[in-house]
Each structure stands twice: as structure tokens, then as C-alpha cells.
Amino acid sequence: MRIPVGDEGVNVAGVVNAPENYLLPCYIGLGYPSEDRPKIQQVEYSTKQKMHFGQW
């Protein structure tokens, strides 16, 4: 499931021929990722790095 960002929702609505007054709050993408897609590296955090006691 994907939540559209920016003009992505409008673009997807056009691709699926949704009526002009429809809003697509989310959609499910089907298919395979492109071979030349950018590789995203996952950032690892420990629990201690993410827990905040008495501070933000």
C-alpha cells in the first residue's frame, strides 16, 4: 500500500482513469521494481537511541 505524495495521486488517478473529482488517499502498487531503481540503505537504530525519557 502506498500513500501518494505531491502530484503522485493525481498522476495515478489519471493512469487508472478515475473520475476527475475522485481523490486517491492510497493505492496498492502491483508489479516488479525497475532494474535501475535507486538502492535505499536501511538505517539501523538501537532501542536506546529511539527512547526518550523526559526529553524530545
Account of the 3D structure:
The chain is mainly α and about 55 residues long. The protein has one domain (about 1-55). It has two helices and no strands. The chain has helices at about 10-15, 45-50. The protein starts with 7 loop residues before the first helix and ends in a 6-residue tail after the last helix.
Could you estimate the helical fraction of the residues in percent? 10-25%
Task: List segments where confidence is low: pLDDT < 50 over at least 5 consecutive residues.
Answer: none
User: What's the N-to-C terminus distance?
Assistant: 30 Å
Oligomer: single chain
- Shape designation: flat
- What's the overall average pLDDT, rounded? 86
Helix count?
2
Q: What Rg is obtained from the alpha carbons, in whole angstroms? A: 18 Å
The sequence of SSEs as H and E is: HH
Summed up, the domain count is: 1
- Give the strand tally: 0
Structural class: mainly alpha
What's the arrangement of secondary structure elements?
Elements: H1 8-15, H2 47-50
What distinguishing features does this structure have?
2 helices; 21% helix; 56 residues; flat
Report a brief summary of the structure.
Helix content is 21%, strand content 0%. The chain has 2 helices and no strands.
